Amino acid sequence: MTELCSISDSFDILNITMNGVEHHTNGDSNGCGDIITQNQQKGCWTIGLINSKFRYLTAESFGFKINANGTSLKKKQIWTLEPDQTGAGDSLIYLRSHLDKYLAVDSFGNVTCESDVKDPGCKFQISVAEDGTGRWALRNLVRGYFLGASADKLTCTAKVPSDAEFWNVHLAARPQMNLRSVGRKRFAHLSENLDEIYVDANVPWGEDTLFTLEFRSEESGKYAVHTCNNKYLSMNGKLVDECSKDCLFTAEYHSGQLALRDRTGQYLSPIGSKAVLKTRSNTVTKDELFSLEDSLPQASFVAALNARFVSVKQGVDVTANQEEISDHETFQLEFDWSTKRWYIRTMQDRYWTLETGGGIQACGDKRSSNALFDLSWQSDGSVAFRANNGRYVITKRSGHLYATSDTVDDTCKYYFYLVNRPILVLKCEQGFVGYKSPANPKLECNKAAYESIQVERGDKGVVYFKNHNGKYWHADSECISAESDTPEGFYLELREPTRLCIKTAAGNYLVANKNGGFRVGDAALAGATQWEY
């Protein structure tokens, strides 16, 4: 029999739920966007649950049928883990399906998923197995028995959990994200020597704040922290080339926050004055808690008029006058869901703002309507900014930016580079973009595991995609494959904070087919796939 540890047994309950006073959000928080974004903003987790037969808990689209037959984490296998708000315990939760129905157990032990509201029978308590696997057991609070899977049906009849009642937890976070310490209220980033992770960044700026929390299904559902320089975090705080057992962590849930426990039972936390991320304590406090947050798009813009990068290096005036990209030429794009427009933020926490007379300055430290801009994507791959006065931003011969044009001409065009994604992971409704098979370079978009895509910058906003085989993407109306020795140009168009469209140099969009096919479509935005990245 596997011993259990109730999370609340090892943790004093703290008022740090993500929808409470301590919540920080990297952008807007009005409940818009996709399910992952919505859940982050509400302090909920987006997860998949895997049983001992390596099958996912599934809510079928018709008849509210539930089973544990899913083979990968797709829409029907997505569950929202909602914290209980009564204060009775930080391990009490509800599970909501993709159909917005709650998992429940009736007085006879029947498991259903038809309720629109959180009835008493919907509440479960998480316990973590103490056998080193980190698996979860879910005890129904009213019934007092554990949720299990048997053949095609779910059961809740076991007083003590066996293998059938233990679940691995697959976090459905975006592959690339920012890691924020709850205790320090700071973000993780690579050290200058690229051999450790420090948790002391006020703002997650640049590619060195990007991390991938890798789900290792072959390692009993544990997690590895993968950095943007292709290293893995070891429990001693050092970054190593290969993912060993010292790099594997169990995910624990604490009132909407994440704790990561190593194989010796110690938890990751920022240690010392440098806030080095490594394991030390065998109990959970604020210092051992983290939140996973969307990495907001950070971009650089080249003015078509003079081929110079837009910059704030010389002061508050936004000016196209630099030849290279630094922090002064990197801007964070923050989406306003109500207007579908963007705030453009500098490293100094100032926003591009429309001033009297039409000039654009980075002087405002507060969001206002004059700090909102439309991104108007052009057929040639460029983008135009439309300011709050309804006019387009032009580049003057001096390089200064002014919103004075009623139409888009060459002075209004800027070339866009997504600078904090040197590696892209692409996902659509069907799954991730990856190889058809290890021996076939054809790409499909229905894969359960993602393929990292290296992004190389060309001129005038063009980017080239290279896969780990060293070959570039080639695209046509039949398929897309990674088998070309010659770079082929594409444009990226940002549509939402976590979604973009990809366009060929000829102006046609890449589209995903229902069967997993991945090909070039036409030039109409209506038929374009918006890729989650």
TrEMBL record:
Main location: cytoplasm
Transmembrane feature ranges: none
GO cellular component, one term: actin cytoskeleton
One GO-annotated biological process of the protein: actin filament bundle assembly
Localization (cell): Cytoplasm, Cytoskeleton
UniProt-listed InterPro entries: Actin-crosslinking (IPR008999), Fascin (IPR010431), Fascin-like_dom (IPR022768), Fascin_metazoans (IPR024703)
Protein's recorded name: Fascin-like domain-containing protein
Taxonomic lineage of the native organism: Eukaryota, Metazoa, Ecdysozoa, Arthropoda, Hexapoda
